[in-house]
Amino acid sequence: MTGMVNRVAPIAVVVAAIMIIWYGFTVHLNAPWQIDRYEKAGTEWQMRDLVRDTMAQERPVLPAPHQIVAEIWKTTVKKKITSKRSLIYHGSVTLSSTLLGFAMGTILGIGLAVSIVENRAMDKSLMPWIITSQTIPILAIAPMIIVVLNAVGLSGLVPKAMISTYLSFFPVVVGMVKGLRSPDPMLMDLMRTYRSSRLQTFWKLRLPASVPFLFASMKVAIAISLVGAIVGELPTGAVAGLGARLLAGSYYGQTIQIWSALISAACMAAILVGVVGVISHLTLRRMGLRA
Amino acid sequence: MTGFQRTIATLGGLAAAAALVIAFIGSGEAGIALLAASLVLALAGMRHHFSLWPQARVDLVASLGGMALLLSRLDGDMPTASWPLLIACWLFGWLAVEKTMAARNLPKALSSVLSLAVPVFFGAWIIFAWEVLTIGLQIPTVLLPPPSMIAVRFAESTSILWADFQQTVIKAALSGYILGCGSAFMVAILIDRVPFLQRGLLPVGNFVSALPIVGIAPIMVMWFGFDWQSKAAVVVVMTFFPMLVNTVAGLQATQAMERDLLRTYASSYFQLLIKLRLPTAAPFIFNALKINSTLALIGAIVAEFFGTPIVGLGFRISTEVGRMNVDMVWAEIVVAALAGSLSYGLLSLLERQVTFWHPSNRRKTP
Amino acid sequence: MSQDSNSIPAIRADRLCLTFDSNDGPVHALKDVDLTIEKGDFVSFIGPSGCGKTTLLRVIADLEHPTGGAISVNGKTPEEARLAGAYGYVFQAPALLAWRTIERNIGLPLEIMGISRAEQAERVKRTLELVGLDGFGRKFPWQLSGGMQQRASIARALAFDAELLLMDEPFGALDEIVRDHLNEQLLQLWKKTGKTICFVTHSIPEAVYLSTRIVVMSPRPGRVTDIIESDLPAERPLDIRESKRFLEIAQRVRNGLREGHSYD
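^ inputs. structure came back:
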């Protein structure tokens, strides 16, 4: 019980501090515009009015947290899911390409890792390029890939998912290679004494040993996959998805809309990572690897 | 020779034989050189059944010869026989690498040369195949321009590329990177003295590191204007948390015995920090610096999609995509890729110098 | 040094207690330990794991705080002794910093204590010779064998000329041949320098071979069950371990350990 309090209390304090700072900045950043308005209208104003009004602007420089929460509430619960203004609709568009990209990236990553571990030529020729591939700021050229694929008739889910795939395969390859190579040399020798074939060693030793590593990298992969999906929605013409909401919001100066899309994306990331974490925990416990 | 190598060799020989047959059926179209090359490669594949000249270099020469021939015949309508020949070249290249890698007890100098040569060979092969396929199959340049075209465009527009590089990489990414990493390092040192703050900030920092932070780009553009300052601000936020989390973790990575040791010397907090904890944290810090070098470029380029003066990698990419000048886009991608790989490479080199003692970098004789 | 300060014992423990709180209730790591160690003694602490021998050493070094009783080191509190640099501590593992050469590792305590560079170099050189590592100063720890690493860590503990040397199973991880060799060298070092040495071990021959006094301890609660004076001659070649007197002392230690065990 005290352990729980010890863990949660510092986080609560830090989050509370962030909230207080946030509200402070809301008043500070939105005040000039508000004062300007008071002066134009010639109204008398006091500090109390200023604080109240800076938190209720329509296009604030920085919206207050409760405004964002209200906007999210309005666009999720109160809107029909089919509506173009429903955040659930946009969220699901992003989610589906995230998951597709994540699935493809994980499969690709596992496949590459297996071939790298089992074949030295693959290891030597591929591994340096896999690392180099991630030093290329692919996210930055994502829009081009989307537009070009659109030009040849590939549109919708798949191009976005490909960006996510490109981003998410990397942590999986790296983690999985590490995992497949993690068995103790002594255990590998033991398998040799059993005349175990390469395939048997793979299924009975390497693969089980790699599972914890796989899950750890999948947590990274799904988070980065979401980032890929959102950036993939940024280019001109994207009409649906959280990224499109960000872009539309920035065009029309709808700061509250931007922030609500951003916070929803953050929540989605947290939930996705959490789900992978729970699956990982359950699987590892079933395998008897972790209590 | 292993069964796997034999399979590759057989497949390579079969592909070459197919090229030979197709070239015969197509009569004059293929030309004598292609016929001869196909024959040579088919024989090279068959030689494994008679255990003749099994050396890897024979396969390499066969592969390179085929490639040279294909390059010399490169144009819009290549004979059909070229494609099986291309496959044969690829298989022989792979076979050469496969055989070289299988050899045990290579001299140390040779094996370090190989560990560089093999990936370079692989990269060159990808570019070669890209060139042959895009030109030979007449793929529309809008979709994927051949590497030669990108190279020409790159050489022609160095001044534009240089200006974009300065705007995005030097001004936006680098300044944001230094500011973000620097401030995160300081904060990490400060909160290190307050365990309560640490326990609170670490989970929050870990959480934020997993978030799609690029999304704040439109907000930063609204706050800091169109020029590079807003991009640098995005980079600061993106690089801050990975650096914070890694530095804090690194500062905690010392072993109890080492801490006890310094305690027996009655060392002060700063002596402990400088002589033990910062060196221990160095590998963690470099890890963050490497992650952040890519993040900084991404942040700077993506932020330009939300508004920018008429210069910069992100600006150029988005406008040239609109004009369907895909070769220019690719030239910009090359710049970004070079900037990313070079900074990563430099950081790795620096890391090796600084953390030479770490088990992953050790050499028995310095 | 005056006669007066010489008569102060190096270590005096009086009804010393240390209790840890654990999930299964309190653990008595040390209970009512009474002990006096005179200057120049070579004292071994021996006992099964959990008997508190390492804890006792850590209390002397001010790395743990007693929950009862009194302890003094050179007539001072352990904390004062630590701040004064009164002892050198050798751990179970070499605990050498991987990014420093052997020289700079040995120089580490000297740097922290603010000793001048010239003096540092001179002392490092001297202690390297003392442990027989001259010529290896420029190497990094990971380039040396385990035995050499442990010798370097002993050199580090000697570098600042503390009167007291606390050694916590320093040779436990080494093979027997290296161990014999280092035991011999340690004895010579002790004779040469006249330091007080507290030495934790779980090897009976090692304890008997090295010590002037052997403190036998037993677990649950950790306490001293016997203190055995060794009257072996000062000159001890390795084959003294086959002598009758040696075997008698060893037998007494073994009996002491057995008695301690009969409690549980």
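The two ends of chain C are 47 Å apart (CA to CA). Residues 14 and 34 of chain C are 5 Å apart (CA to CA).
thumbs up if we can close this ticket
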